[in-house]
Amino acid sequence: MVSVRDVFSRPLNPLNVARMDKLTTHQAQDDARNEDILIWVNGTLKPKAQAMVSVYDSGFMLGDGIWEGLRLYDGRWSFLDLHLDRLFEAALAIDLNIGMDRAALRRAIADTQQANGMVSDAHCRLMVTRGLKSRPFQHPALSVSGPTVVILMEHSRPSIRRPIRLATVPHQRGLPMTQDPKLNSHSKLNCILACIAAEKAGADEALMLDVHGFVNTTNACNFFIVRRGEVWTSTGDYCMNGITRGKVIEICRKAGIPVYERNFSLVDTYGADEAFLTGTFGAQTPVGDIDGRKIGTGQMGPVTERILQLYKAMVTA
Ligand SMILES: Cc1ncc(COP(=O)(O)O)c(C=O)c1O
């Protein structure tokens, strides 16, 4: 808390102070070293308090940018190639020239890691926006500076204390012709609105349905259930093509655990034996309660535990 005040030299928002006690799927242990991190901003490593972008930045002004979340385990950024694939695909989709190739991005990530002395248990948010605008309006032609690239790394050990609670919300991650749910866009407002609705309902995170009412995803993670020994997740048509999601499917296939990408409803979900979330930060996070219904025993189930161990082995191999 102090660090936020230090960086921005202003009092904290009382509403958000109350929220700081809430459980999120991105809960991490406090780590004092994060006050002294260096952040890569357009080629220069800057102390946290000086790592700033302009109010004219397309990302700040309009949410016009893309990002990736990466995790360092035992000296290696997990699935870095897949993250770079997704980043470059998103850049192509939004017609943004990152101005760096994969090798340059890899070097910048390695330099930032080295400058911060990180060897494991670090999280990186790699952000690319359309850069500075000449005037405060939407047209991409007004973004005249070239992209803004930021590599922000923190020491980070997830510390989620119990299976989380989900609440179903009216917000959807919808059809590709509105805002494609496969874009890791800077603007997360749709997901933030979903998260706020879940929080108001007393839950930790939102369970979002697809346009047909089938269970889809949460506001920040992919969603799985386990029924009678089978692992089910959504078809993938309306959610983020999560890298952890893909790896969990791969792990299940290799381990002979039946896994299906399919439509399923809240009836199937409330009646599941287990449920869990996937994401780069938390790997696999058990879900204990959805809309006030206990899922299975309300604790992490044996299939989730097995997948979690197999995933751990995969990322530290
Ligand atoms: C909406 C949403 N779903 C799922 C994920 C998880 O994706 P990954 O496993 O690639 O971290 C993310 C993370 O970026 C996300 O924003």
TrEMBL record:
Q: Which keywords accompany this UniProt record?
A: Amino-acid biosynthesis, Aminotransferase, Branched-chain amino acid biosynthesis, Pyridoxal phosphate, Transferase
List, in alphabetical order, the Gene Ontology terms for molecular function in this entry: branched-chain-amino-acid transaminase activity
Q: Entry's InterPro entries?
A: Aminotrans_IV (IPR001544), Aminotransferase-like (IPR036038), BCAT-like_C (IPR043132), BCAT-like_N (IPR043131), Class-IV_PLP-Dep_Aminotrnsfr (IPR050571)
Coiled-coil ranges per the record?
Answer: none
User: What are its E.C. numbers?
Assistant: 2.6.1.42
Q: In which pathway does it act?
A: Amino-acid biosynthesis; L-leucine biosynthesis; L-leucine from 3-methyl-2-oxobutanoate: step 4/4; Amino-acid biosynthesis; L-valine biosynthesis; L-valine from pyruvate: step 4/4; Amino-acid biosynthesis; L-isoleucine biosynthesis; L-isoleucine from 2-oxobutanoate: step 4/4
Gene Ontology BP annotations: amino acid biosynthetic process; branched-chain amino acid biosynthetic process
From which domain of life does this come? Bacteria
Cofactor requirement? pyridoxal 5'-phosphate
Q: Which reaction does it catalyse?
A: L-valine + 2-oxoglutarate = 3-methyl-2-oxobutanoate + L-glutamate; L-isoleucine + 2-oxoglutarate = (S)-3-methyl-2-oxopentanoate + L-glutamate; L-leucine + 2-oxoglutarate = 4-methyl-2-oxopentanoate + L-glutamate
Q: Give the function comment from the record.
A: Acts on leucine, isoleucine and valine.
Name the family the entry cites.
Belongs to the class-IV pyridoxal-phosphate-dependent aminotransferase family.
Query: What name does UniProt use for this protein?
Result: Probable branched-chain-amino-acid aminotransferase
Q: What is the lineage of its organism?
A: Bacteria, Pseudomonadati, Pseudomonadota, Alphaproteobacteria, Rhodobacterales
